[in-house]
Design brief:
111 residues
């Protein structure tokens, strides 16, 4: 029970960090480096949420584990879009947000 509480607390802290990062990711700034830094941080947080989501499940929950790992697909597409365009744009940022929200909802409610 204690480990589950600690994992839940970690998930809440990561989600709070993601909310702050998302706000700064969409704030207009003149410096493209700032956008790249916040986009990279958002991608890392979505990967972290997905890893926690997938690895916190028991081994015999294979369909749920596969569904949890599929949460990285929007982040991968967002990274491909960003590399192709040279900078993060609105669709890429929204895909990263979708990936993190999917991981959070999956951990907190579904899986």
């Amino acid at each position: 029970m204690m480990a589950l509480g600690a994992l839940f607390l970690l998930e809440v802290v990561i989600l709070f960090s993601f909310i702050v990062t998302s706000l700064f990711m969409f704030v207009p700034k003149k410096n493209i480096t700032v956008h790249k830094i916040f986009f990279s941080l958002a991608v890392m947080l979505s990967v972290l949420v997905t890893v926690i989501d997938a690895t916190s499940l028991p081994a015999n929950y294979t369909p749920q584990i596969i569904l949890a790992w599929l949460g990285l697909v929007p982040s991968a597409i967002a990274v491909i879009i960003t590399v192709a365009k040279g900078q993060p744009n609105i669709p890429a940022k929204l895909l990263v947000m979708l990936s993190s929200i999917y991981g959070a909802v999956g951990y907190l409610f579904i899986f």
